[in-house]
Amino acid sequence: MTRWLVTGAAGQLGTHLARQLPPSDVVALSRDELDITSPRAVTEAVRAARPDVVVNAAAYTAVDAAEADEDRAYAVNATGPRLLAAAVAEHGGRLIHVSTDYVFDGTADRPYEPGDPTGPRTAYGRTKLAGEHAVRAALPDCCVVRSAWIYGGPGANFVDTMLGLEQRRETVDVVADQTGSPTWVADLAGALIGLGLSSLTGRVLHYANAGTASWFELAQEVFRAVGADPDRVRPVTSAGFARPAPRPAWSVLSTAEWAACGLGDPRDWRSALREYLSGKT
After folding, report:
1. Does 234 fall in a domain?
2. Has this prediction a pTM greater than 0.85?
3. Which of left, alpha, beta for 152 (phi over 0: left; psi -120 to 50: alpha)?
4. What single-letter DSSP state applies at residue 202?
5. Who has greater pLDDT, 85 or 242?
6. Does residue 134 form part of some domain?
7. What is the helix (H) or strand (E) element at residue 235, kind and residue range?
8. CB count, 10 Å around CB of 176?
9. Cβ distance 4 to 21 under 8 Å?
């Protein structure tokens, strides 16, 4: 039996991790149950759970709000992970820390490899990169896994937003000049569990569903999958959607190293999307 501790258990990823793990083997703690910015709470949670594997799915993910609230974002995305890594180092076990494509500057023209230079352009990205550095300093054997464009709920996400707009609007304008790899959260959760059951340590890896799409192309595929006319989705540029935090133009993550580690090849994003949507209709 492998004992698991999952933080951020009420979020998208934490929810799916808890669903896929045997209930008797996992302690899944939401933000209300574990404030990872509290040294005492983190130490007590790790001591009580006695986990073999900790998956840190807790994060401050409000990208725009972080621009005006960077201190809080730093506390959750950097200080909290450092405390968690230190507690695991003291009490034993392994740590998988989840990070993001926002640690890169978004200007590449090929998929980002784990070792590529970072250069975050947002408060969210800066705090997530600080979290990567913090956990690796406190626990060099930890694994950091970056992902991107995650959907599947619970909570707001792009795919569910498009499903709602398809019902309410005749046409929908969607950005066509940002490219990434849409990733179903259920696939990501399963991949992280596989990593936790492996013997790999001390790695920075990327996991995302295979292939690339713009937000516009993803929205079209959502419409197509539910039998709606994809031409109802209209392409626009990022200039028409000004936000406090700039979005990366390029968010494609290479999973070559993930596969080279024997963890399997992620499936194509269209296959994952259609499976997700099949459960919504």
Report:
1. no
2. yes
3. left
4. S
5. 85
6. yes
7. strand 233-236
8. 18
9. yes
Q: What is the pLDDT of residues 29-58, one digit of tens each?
A: 999 999 999 999 999 999 999 999 999 999
Q: Is 174 in a helix, a strand, or coil?
A: strand
User: In the chain, what is the straight-line distance between the N-terminal and C-terminal CA atoms, in Å?
Assistant: 36
CA atoms within 13 A on the CB side of 182: 25
In the block, residue with structure tokens 């192309």? 217
Measured CA to CA, the distance from residue 142 to residue 50 in angstroms comes to 16
Active-site residues: which are they? 124
Residue 6, strand partner residues = 28, 55
Which token pair is 26? 């996992």
CA distance 95 to 215: 32
Distance CA 96, CA 85 (A): 9
CATH code, domain with 261: 3.40.50.720
The total number of structural domains that make up the chain: 1
DSSP 227: T
- Where in the sequence is the domain holding 124, given as residue range(s)? 4-156+183-210+252-268
Report yes or no on 242 lying in a domain. Answer: no
238 found inside a domain: no
Find how far residue 236's CA is from the centre of its chain: 26
- Tens digit of pLDDT for each residue in 94-138? 999 999 999 999 999 999 999 999 999 999 999 999 999 999 999
**Long-range Cβ contact pairs of 189-194 (< 8 A, separation 24 or more):** 189/13, 189/16, 189/17, 189/19, 189/20, 190/20, 191/145, 191/258, 191/263, 191/264, 191/266, 192/13, 192/17, 192/55, 192/96, 192/98, 192/145, 193/17, 193/20, 193/21, 194/263, 194/264
